[in-house]
Design goal:
OB fold (Dihydrolipoamide Acetyltransferase, E2P), globular, eight-stranded mixed β-sheet, Chloramphenicol Acetyltransferase, alpha+beta, 3 domains, five-stranded antiparallel β-sheet, 31% helix
Length: 461
Amino acid sequence: MSSKGNMTDVAMPQLAESLVSATIAKWLKKPGEKIEQYEPICEVITDKVNAEIPSTLDGFMGEIVAEEGSSVAVGEIICRISAAGGAEAETAAASKSEPVTVQQSSTADASMRSRFSPAVQTLAAEHGIDLNSVTGTGMGGRITRKDVLSYIGNGGSAKRDAEAPAASTVSNHKAEANTGSPFAGMVSPPPSVPSPPLGTVIPDVRHSGLHLTEMPKIPQIEVEDTGNGRSEYFVDVTPIRNTIAKNMRQSISEIPHAWTMIEVDVTNLVLIRNKLKDEFKRKEGVNLTYLAFLLKAVVNAIKDYPIMNSFWAVDKIVVKRDINLSLAVGTEDSVITPVIKRADQKNIAGLAREIDELARKTREGKLTLDDLQGGTFTVNNTGSFGSILSYPIINYPQAAILTFESIVKKPVVINDMIAVRSMANLCLSLDHRILDGVICGRFLQRVKDNLEGFSLETKLY
């Protein structure tokens, strides 16, 4: 930041080492509005993840230089802030008094209620405060540092602290029921909710545990009359969709894709998961999904065939030592790939917890750049929405991507007899510069053997 009189220039920060620009997604403050130090002033979109830019001083929002939707290079000015106490600040305060009253008096809008800035989270953690108990006065019901400090100063209320988690739980369940979110299955019931009585039949619906948490934003649509009585619809390309298009085009144009598939008998896997999932949920508070077992099978196969954990570097092939699994998570309007770091050092229970943690972060909009960087091999659970066969595009610059398709009961011939078994397809896209059919065939066979090797004696820890 640079200062001119009482006005301070705010520049686009270097959010990551390789980042050269970011797109302004939304301004959280308008000219004339009061700003506290560390309070987010805008949301930006990068090639990896959405982020927030906080204010570094107390004051009032001045001129907005970069409009929403514009791409700004690192170091360029995005806005100016009037430092608290200056003449500009007093003028801004006078001009903003009426709009702020309207904003703070409106309690219906709680769209930002669950979005917490790092400063708010740190302050709450230091004082052991449950943010569900704090009333937010920011935009969309957002909790600011001033709200937390005020809550600390008032000492809180025991009754309020007791009622807030219950109210939050009810609202969470209502939200899940209304949103159809792909992350809906991952919310653990509170301890106060009793388990169903023994003998109750609960339908076993297969899901990966990685699901949407909110309805996607409705794209802006423009209608143009062509003059012949018919109209065409134009949908704005969002920065996220533009980034996906760029990455997919790069992957397809630079990587010679090849594809192969193998069928796996997962009958024993279904049995062990059904046997252990209820106890695991009570003990760990998270769902035991098929995805956790798949990741373990993939990790063990990569250990046997480390060339799968590599990328092309023009004059050499770089094989990564750490196995960092990227999980392809699709929503109606985007695809993100959060990463489980050092997945080879985790057991099945640990992988299940990591899946739940990534689901929670995505649900709360708290994924960081670090959560999305460093992936060395991608796993995609397309079976979670019923797919039985797919041809995935490689997550550039990795060497391969594996998809786990839907589990389907089929008649299978075993020892010249027909039996009904739970079957699933594993589909692998590979970079043919690095990998060939023989090595990938052996790798898939090893993943198959690992999945079919799970039994009722398999240990989760």
